[in-house]
Amino acid sequence: MALGASLDGANLRFSATVVDEWIRCGARHAVISPGSRSTPMALAISARPEITTHVRLDERSAAFFALGMAKFNKEPVIILATSGTAVAELIPAAAEAYYSLVPLIICTADRPPELHGIGAPQTLRQIGPFDHFVKEVFDPGAPRNEASWSWRSLASLVYSRSLGLRPGPVQVNLAFAEPLIDGELEPIAPRADGGAWFSAKVHLGVAEDDEIHRLFDPKKKGIFVVGAESGADLSLYQLAEALGWPVLADPRSGLITNHPNCVRYPDSFLRSGEIASKLIPDTIIRLGESWSSKVLSNFMASSAQNNDALIVSLSNRETFVDETRTNRTGYLLDVLGTIKRAVDILLGEGISKRRHAIGDQWLKLWADVDGISSSIVDEILGWDSGGAGASEGPMSEPGLSRSLMECLSSDDIVLVASSMPIRDLEWFTPKKDGLPRVLSNRGVNGIDGLVSTFLGIASVNRHPDSLSVGLLGDLALLHDFGSLIWHTKSHPKGLLVISDNDGGAIFSFLAQKSDLEASRFESLFGTPHEADIDSLLRGIGISTYHIEDVADLVGVIELARRSNGLSIAIFKSDRESNLSFHQGLQDAVIAALAQH
Ligand SMILES: Cc1ncc(C[n+]2csc(CCOP(=O)(O)OP(=O)(O)O)c2C)c(N)n1
């Protein structure tokens, strides 16, 4: 059916072909923000039932929403925005996606070249705004039927470039000449077998056996430090067991377990210089992204600088974390295959039996201080790891993070904000099996776009037994409050937990807090918001729950599980007591360690 005055039909035929090809590549979700110039692509996307089309007015929210979906599914999501400032609104999410290696296909509708530089409305230079935040910019120019032979190749190349060894955003600038609706949405023919026109395959190798012997030397005192997206799985513990090395795993790694080699509280016990000096390793094997703990990264750096520890990163993505510039080698390889091969080699050689003299003592040193730290953290946060569960009483911010991890299951998912929540979660998540999956926007650590990222995650988390939970500060909520005002009746099922300490608690932990006079600190850093969050939410039809203790949290989680929509729970805290609570907790751990 003709959709409008027919010219040569290239706009719609091009758009229909590109979308058809993306579907053949695997695309399942698109987020569209309204605008006129993007019409051909908006019509092409929304015409296809294989793609779930999400419409979001605010492009900044739209892009973060797409980011959340892409993070959750680890597959590219299409974003479509119109020309002009709409394009610039996509930059924050593109930056986060670029640095956290999340695939996005960012389509920016544009006017054709002849309308640039002459004062045409809503027209700006669209090649360049993303600068370093996209892997590649595709600018095929206004669609021409003579170039239709290239359209499927273009689309599949765009898709595959968003993936690969370094997934990330790509931009496709779509110049459309008028009439925008110029014919029919009829794609040109696909490949005869119906498959994608082009796909890129990546095959990473396993480390050579002699390399494995050098890396995983049971005569050495080694540690594994594991963060998000490590490429490893629980078989790492077989290797750690064979070597007698501890595994320092953060909640985002998905590798915290009850295994004896799992070490959970390095941020607490490495604050003691005396303890840290006894734990200096010969070898540090880093897997995945960095932790937020400065204590841990300083420990690794000083082990390398002062004691010649060898730091090696293993990665199956084209990126190596090295926040203190102390890595000696980075290996781009099949991480899991290498771990499994190392286990075979070490067990085959009976290494695990021979290493006892070093390995057992070395592991015991770590396990002992971790155990002492654990008992103090448990006691102060009111949790009995022995099985009695939570004690009664008011909760702290660390207690909130800890309790959340205790109360959720491995089917659930948590998006954690990059201010205090990620630190509390990293530092106080218990050592136990069956923890939820944890995601965060740690590419560039923005406190922006977190509500939209959460809504994106929740909207694709369709597992009936899974609850999506977001743990955010009050400023992060208010920063992205606009995302909540749309589609309030169709928000996805999920629970947002807001730690409301009336401002940015994280700044209380910095030197600015002690160096500046209180009023200056408050106005520049603490930034109390003076907003009545309950009323704001009520105003858009969302009622809130309040959490004061673990029982409240358990109740709210149960309600959220039964609800089909968005639940928001607020935990009222204050920044001063949060600071002293943290200090008291760390002091208590150090004091307990000193007694042993
Ligand atoms: C987009 C952006 N702007 C500013 C910052 C700097 N910043 C880091 S944390 C923070 C305050 C966060 O406050 P809140 O969300 O309430 O969390 P809390 O610190 O209380 O845990 C700010 C402004 C940032 N990371 N990202």
What does this structure look like?
There is one protein chain. The chain is 40% helix and 15% strand. With 596 residues, the protein is an alpha/beta fold. It has three domains: 10-175, Rossmann fold, CATH 3.40.50.970; 209-365, Rossmann fold; 382-595, Thiamin diphosphate (ThDP)-binding fold, Pyr/PP domains (Rossmann fold), CATH 3.40.50.970. The protein has a six-stranded parallel beta sheet, with helices on both faces. Strands 9-8-7-10-11-12 form a six-stranded parallel beta sheet. Helix 1 packs across helix 2 (39-46) and helix 15 crosses helix 16. The longest helix is centred in the middle third of the chain and has 26 residues, at 356-381. The protein is globular and about 85 Å long. It starts with 9 loop residues before the first helix and ends with a helix. It binds thiamine diphosphate (TPP). Residues 417, 419-421, 445-448, 473-476, 501, 504-506 line the site of thiamine diphosphate.
